[in-house]
Write a structure and sequence with these properties.
globular, 7-stranded mixed beta sheet, 4-stranded antiparallel beta sheet, single chain, Rossmann fold, about 40% strand, alpha/beta
C-alpha cells in the first residue's frame, strides 16, 4: 500500500525552507503534490486550473495565424503552465526560468507527475536563475543570448501586492514593466497569474506600459471549502 504522506524533498534556502511532499487525498482518491516555503503553501496539484489558463489566455492573445512562437515561463513550480504552453502547437521553443535550483532538480529527477513530459520535450529548456533580476538587469531570460519572445508568462509571487521576496516588488511598477517590455517582440504578450482579485491600481499601471490590459477572473471548484475559488490572470500586449 502506498504511503498516505511522504516528504519527497526539503532544504533551507535564502527565502526559507522549501519542501515537496506527496499525500493521498482519500476523498478524491488521488495523489496530491504540494510545495511549501516554510509554513506557506506555494502550490498544489489540486488547484491547477488557473495555472493552465495563464498559458491558454496568454497565448490566445496572440494572432491565431502566428507560428514558431518563442515563449518564456517565469516560475516552473509543478509544471502545469509550462505543459499547457507546450500543448499549443504553435510554440517552437519554451524557456522556463526558475530561481530555486531545488525545483529544477525535482523535475530533472522525475519526482513530479509532469516531469518526464516537460524534460522530454526537445522544445523545453529549464534555466536556473532569478527571473526578476534578469528582467531588472537586462540579462538574457534564456540564460544565453539575449532575444525577444512572443510571450512571457509569469507565475511566481502570490500577487503584485503579496510577493515572496521584497526584491520582487519593483517588477510590478511602471519602471519594472518597462524593463519586462524590452524582452517582448512587438505585438508580444505578457500574462501574469495572481491569487488576489483584480487589482485596479495594478491594471492601470500595466496600461501605462502595455496595451489592451485585461484582468481575467478564473474560477474553479474547491472541494476543501465546498465552494468555488478564483484567481486572476492579467494579459497585455506590447504595441506592435
Amino acid at each position: 500500500m502506498a504511503l498516505r504522506f511522504e516528504e519527497l524533498a526539503w532544504r533551507e534556502t535564502a527565502m526559507g525552507a522549501i519542501s515537496l511532499r506527496r499525500r493521498r487525498d482519500p476523498e478524491l482518491d488521488v495523489d496530491v503534490y504540494e510545495v511549501k516555503l516554510d509554513d506557506d503553501f506555494l502550490m498544489s496539484s489540486l488547484f491547477t486550473v488557473a495555472e493552465v489558463e495563464l498559458a491558454r489566455l496568454g497565448l490566445a492573445a496572440l494572432p491565431g495565424a502566428a507560428t514558431g512562437l518563442d515563449v518564456v515561463v517565469g516560475g516552473l513550480g509543478l509544471g502545469y503552465t509550462a505543459r499547457a504552453a507546450l500543448q499549443d502547437e504553435r510554440v517552437r521553443s519554451l524557456v522556463v526560468v526558475e530561481a530555486l535550483v531545488d525545483v529544477v532538480g525535482w523535475h530533472e529527477a522525475g519526482l513530479l507527475p509532469l516531469s518526464a513530459e516537460l524534460t522530454g520535450d526537445p522544445r523545453t529548456r529549464l534555466v536556473t536563475g532569478d527571473f526578476f533580476a534578469r528582467v531588472r538587469d537586462g540579462d538574457p531570460l534564456d540564460g544565453d543570448v539575449r532575444r525577444q519572445f512572443h510571450a512571457v508568462l509569469v507565475d511566481i509571487d502570490h500577487s503584485p501586492r503579496h510577493v515572496l521576496h521584497p526584491s520582487h516588488a519593483a517588477f510590478y511598477t511602471a519602471d519594472g514593466l518597462r524593463q519586462l517590455r524590452e524582452h517582448l517582440r512587438p505585438g508580444g504578450v505578457f500574462a501574469l497569474w495572481s491569487d488576489d482579485p483584480p487589482d485596479d491600481e495594478f491594471l492601470d499601471t500595466l496600461g501605462t506600459v502595455l496595451e489592451a490590459p485585461q484582468a481575467h477572473v478564473v474560477t474553479f471548484p474547491n472541494h476543501l471549502t465546498g465552494g468555488t475559488s478564483a484567481n486572476t490572470v492579467y494579459v497585455a500586449r506590447r504595441t506592435g
